[in-house]
Amino acid sequence: MAFHTFLCHRSPCGGGCDSLPARPVRTGSSPGPGAGPSTWRAPARNERMKRGSEAVAEGQVMGPEDLVYDAARGVVYTGCEDGWIKRVTLNDSVADSVVENWVNTGGRPLGLAFDHNVVLTTHYDGVDVAHDGTIYFTDASYKYSVKDSVIDILEGKPNGRFLSYNPATNKTTLLAHDLYFPNGVALSPDQQFVLFCETVLMRCMKYYIQGPKKGSIDKFCDLPGMPDTIHYDGQGQYWIGIATVM
């Protein structure tokens, strides 16, 4: 396997999700006086989806789930289904990239976060660390294990949770429950809210951790498919991996 993902990006200031466009095709006669409504359809495949992309570590990573990028060192870390967190050193040529077995977790690393030069991994589905050290993470399903996660998606019931952990007090707090397979976590740059995706409902939600709306949840955006992980790029955009386009 290699790193492959469909990314859509969204500005924290609002607006729709900016995915790669598909040209609509109109079938039937043109609308006119007395004419019935025309039918619009999108092509089944977006030929522009992989334009400008390259496969990295092809054949050297097994089921990469999440990843974090250390820009200072030019290194990508990703959690794989065999338990290894792989370290991929990027070079000018993709073919020259170096893949190493970095740490074996003994489980299934799902969420990764990079904080103060430390890679944080969790067996939960998304994780990010606030400036005050609080760790925010999602639990996609309290009912089913990782190997049975597809059953949870097919069941379509709200078995997920959003939580926080305070390392100073060793306390875990349930922030939201009855979520539809929450997956991926990203803090806003001003630390006012946390974003998490709901895979089954194909949307991204905003949980306020500061300000007058603290503790409340709003919809951040709808998505063109089932999201899997979200990251803020430090340049005003959130990048969301779409596992299945609908």
Textual characterization of the structure:
This protein is 3% helix and 43% strand. The chain is mostly beta strands and 246 residues long. The strands form 6 sheets. Strands 4-5-6-7 form a 4-stranded antiparallel beta sheet, with no helix packed on it. A 4-stranded antiparallel beta sheet has the order 10-11-12-13, with no helix packed on it. The protein has a 4-stranded antiparallel beta sheet with strand order 14-15-16-17, with no helix packed on it. A hairpin with a 2-residue loop joins strand 8 (111-115) and strand 9. It starts with 6 loop residues before the first strand and ends with a strand. The relative contact order is 0.14.
Quick recap of the structure?
By secondary structure, the chain is an all-beta fold.
Tell me the major beta sheet. 4 strands, antiparallel
What's the average pLDDT?
A: 78
Helix and strand content put the structural class at mainly beta
Weakly predicted, low-confidence segments: 1-9, 13-36
Biggest sheet strand order reads 4-5-6-7
Dominant shape = globular
